[in-house]
């Protein structure tokens, strides 16, 4: 039995620990994005919850993915009359297929670009309406203010969370790969176009002259989209609620901390900033055992192993001729195949192929029998493939997918094929056999995996540390470069160079005038003398 004094001491000690824990349980407001972005934000929320933080999530009443009634977060629902419908992708998909099949001209490329612009414009228009709805709802804003959040964590590919953090005057942290104006770094760090390929350009960090011209054109397209279609919409909301002196661009660039969903195993090396923390692959984890029926199927593949295929959350329906060709190709292989596919069952489906609605992708990728991942190239899937060291055959469709896959191909770990051309010349079969039979693909991917895993701290733990860091210090102002407050002519020292050039010019002109007048004087003297 403990002496009385010791017991009191222990009691005190445990009270200190308890209160320490309570003090360190912060309040976090999350303004997430839908779709695959929500999938990994949810993983971060679970981790925050398990650290004892309380998390509220802002969503609309027409949310696709963000559900109510989970223990790890509470929802704050904003009723909106209009929501972004992910069917918008289908007409775009049809245009992309036409272009990839070479059945169309420059005109259809232009019309695709217009369609993309209009989709982007609409998405942000709907976001701005949601933000307006939020800011005009006095009760909602008051209750958010009274909640005294320690920080706002948002995905800045949509701008509502950025403005909300400003309205509530709390520190802002990003879970970011994209901002409303393009790839995350572009809004923050110096990004020379000579070796930083723009998204969508399909270029790497080594560019010829012509490729650099192409890169510049893509940069101009991104700038156009941001400058005319996206930023003005958010600026209008800022004007209305915060006054015109608050610039949306400054709010976007002024976040305290950028948790970047990339790392330099995946991304090409580039300049960065002190408040950027790389958490690429934070959602990856060691594989758990498979459900029994899947394990049985995987084991039945014998020495040949298994191929898995998934085209992500967006592409649910493909044209029947493509799915038939994919199924027919799989049927020719000795491997077993697990294919995540919605829609009609292809007529050509072989008996080695299992079609599923959903699959435990991470657990499958970590299974030693998996030989190949047929993927669309979304960031999550590509990073899971890197983490588990499984080589990839990529069937990219849009957004950053081609560029993500290119980063693997460049390192000899993937083959890329246009989805619309899988039916031409057995392209698809050749690509699969190449990656399966040539050991360098697997070797290169495993090397990426080793590099990615060789870090002093796991990416998710790093993210948690830095989120708590911002809460402890009420921001991270000391890490923010002042660059984002500077107008462009100061940022590039244009004013200094101009004033220097002007000074030199004035001195030269003064000299010229002086010598000219001296010379004129002499000449005229000579002239009078000669007369
Ligand atoms: C969401 O809220 C709006 C506005 O109150 C309402 O018109 C709409 O029917 C609601 N939608 C859903 C799916 O609840
Ligand atoms: C699967 O199909 C192949 C050829 O199409 C056939 O040889 C084989 O017996 C079939 N296997 C099963 C288990 O039905």
From TrEMBL:
<keyword id="KW-0812">Transmembrane</keyword>
<dbReference type="InterPro" id="IPR050271">
    <property type="entry name" value="UDP-glycosyltransferase"/>
</dbReference>
<dbReference type="InterPro" id="IPR035595">
    <property type="entry name" value="UDP_glycos_trans_CS"/>
</dbReference>
<dbReference type="GO" id="GO:0015020">
    <property type="term" value="F:glucuronosyltransferase activity"/>
</dbReference>
<keyword id="KW-0808">Transferase</keyword>
<comment type="similarity">
    <text>Belongs to the UDP-glycosyltransferase family.</text>
</comment>
<keyword id="KW-0732">Signal</keyword>
<keyword id="KW-0328">Glycosyltransferase</keyword>
<keyword id="KW-1133">Transmembrane helix</keyword>
<feature type="transmembrane region" description="Helical">
    <location>
        <begin position="488"/>
        <end position="515"/>
    </location>
</feature>
<dbReference type="Pfam" id="PF00201">
    <property type="entry name" value="UDPGT"/>
</dbReference>
<dbReference type="GO" id="GO:0016020">
    <property type="term" value="C:membrane"/>
</dbReference>
<protein>
    <recommendedName>
        <fullName>UDP-glucuronosyltransferase</fullName>
        <ecNumber>2.4.1.17</ecNumber>
    </recommendedName>
</protein>
<feature type="signal peptide">
    <location>
        <begin position="1"/>
        <end position="25"/>
    </location>
</feature>
<dbReference type="InterPro" id="IPR002213">
    <property type="entry name" value="UDP_glucos_trans"/>
</dbReference>
<keyword id="KW-0472">Membrane</keyword>
